[in-house]
Amino acid sequence: MCSRCRPTFPPASANRPHNAGRRAVLRAAGAWGLAAGAPAWAQVDVGDASALRKLVPAETLENAATQQYAQLLAQARAQRALAPPQHPQLLRLRAIAQRLIPFTARWNPRAAHWRWEVNLIGSKQINALCMPGGKIAFYTGILEQLKLSDDEVAMVMGHEMAHALREHARERIAKNQATNLGLRLGAQLLGLGDLGNLAAGLGGQLLTLQFSRSDESDADLVGLELAARAGYAPEASVSLWTKMGQATGQRQAGMAFLSTHPSGPARIRELERNAPRVRGLYEQALGQRKNQNDS
Prior knowledge:
Blueprint: H1 19-31, H2 58-78, H3 88-100, E1 117-121, E2 128-131, E3 135-139, H4 140-145, H5 150-165, H6 168-180, H7 187-191, H8 193-199, H9 213-229, H10 236-249, H11 256-260, H12 265-294
Parallel strand pairs: 1-3
Antiparallel strand pairs: 2-3
């Protein structure tokens, strides 16, 4: 983060693996029965979550994420860049999160027990994130430079939540570490101890992981559905990524989010195809909210 780019807030109070080894790891994962699919009620088709992700203990990675998130907030606080509790944009973000969170556990049962947090960091960076365990941070740049509506913010937040719910970081770290270890056989494989022990020290990777195109598509669609169920317009997913594309073309400063989440016609077309699938969920959510307001 560039300190020159950051507005201040008052201090907050609060070479490839051996094939045999690779097959052995996959067999081990399969033997554990680790494959997990999307919820049966899902309107978007994202297929099964990776079985290989389970080679890294979820709790270990979530604990590492909690520690790194705390460090991120401490750094922002020291630089007077952490939004105070009553900051209007932070209140807005937390209100949107409260509408999305009730729909997360069906995508990942662990989410029901996560200690969700939402914070805002003052910076011109176009960036947002959700770390394993539900630790969310937005940067003021993504809100202000792209002039996001609430519906578009919900699409960004839903997308980032989906990365955590679908455990893309856990999968990516498992694959990276399996490759780095050469997929060792014997006792290490039987206990998969190396991967589990290494996970504890991998928190530092969580802000720099590069997700695959498949991961990004997965997060787009799961995020789209989360937002629609929470009453946010599906069409906002298209307007959001149109804005992202325009920002890329204009070479906006601090494009951390855009460097890892490239916009493009294919991404927008996929969202255009899927928005109608969740339109009914959106309309149902609107009806429920109206009834609540009328009662």
